[in-house]
Amino acid sequence: MIHPTALIEAGATIAPDAKIGPFCTVGRDVVLDAGVELVSHVAISGRTRVGAGAKIFPFCTIGLEPQDLKYKGEETETVIGPRTQIREHASIHRGTLTGSGITRIGADCLLMATVHVAHDCVLGDGVIISNNVALGGHVEIGDRAVIGGNAALLQFTRVGTG
């Protein structure tokens, strides 16, 4: 189901059972797998794949250009794992060529409200990130790690195993 106020660019790949709520925007290189739900006012762009059963809440931005002065428009990606929940006002930027080229969120993660995930971050499966957390570029978080509210992880920080 796609709400009539949603804007979907030609070329986007959307599973037949995906739900796209009011005022969402989905870019041409976006893939939404089976059962994905964009609640409302979600903006997804760039080469971004959202895994099956993921749910993204209002005012999230995913796959936008990284906040990195070295970035010059190269083709990079964002991958969101299956069954992951991304809560209100979260932002996830795509990778850079100086990193892996991919920002990756694992399966079964919960990113609470106003979380920021910068370019080239890698989150394992089952990660929980509490409200107002900021992850700098190239941060790695291992499986099932929990990051408490209002934390800021500097670039290249590694938490947990993986």
List keywords for this structure.
mainly beta, globular, UDP N-Acetylglucosamine Acyltransferase, domain 1, eight-stranded parallel beta sheet, 162 residues, 23 strands
3D structure, described in words:
- The chain has one domain: UDP N-Acetylglucosamine Acyltransferase, domain 1 (3 Solenoid), CATH 2.160.10.
- It is an all-beta fold.
- 41% of the residues are buried.
- The chain is globular and about 40 Å long.
- The protein has an eight-stranded parallel sheet with strand order 1-4-7-10-13-16-19-22, with no helix packed on it. An eight-stranded parallel sheet has the order 2-5-8-11-14-17-20-23, with no helix packed on it.
Brief digest:
By secondary structure, the protein is mainly β.
Strand-helix topology:
Blueprint: E1 7-8, E2 13-14, E3 19-20, E4 25-26, E5 30-32, E6 37-38, E7 43-44, E8 47-50, E9 55-56, E10 61-64, E11 77-80, E12 85-86, E13 91-93, E14 102-105, E15 110-111, E16 116-117, E17 122-123, E18 128-129, E19 134-135, E20 140-141, E21 146-147, E22 152-153, E23 158-159
Parallel strand pairs: 1-4, 2-5, 3-6, 4-7, 5-8, 6-9, 7-10, 8-11, 9-12, 10-13, 11-14, 12-15, 13-16, 14-17, 15-18, 16-19, 17-20, 18-21, 19-22, 20-23
At CATH level 2, the architecture is: 3 Solenoid
SSE class: mainly beta
- The CATH topology is what? UDP N-Acetylglucosamine Acyltransferase, domain 1
The mean pLDDT is 98
Q: Could you give a short account of the major beta sheet?
A: 8 strands, parallel
Low-confidence spans: none
H-E order: EEEEEEEEEEEEEEEEEEEEEEE
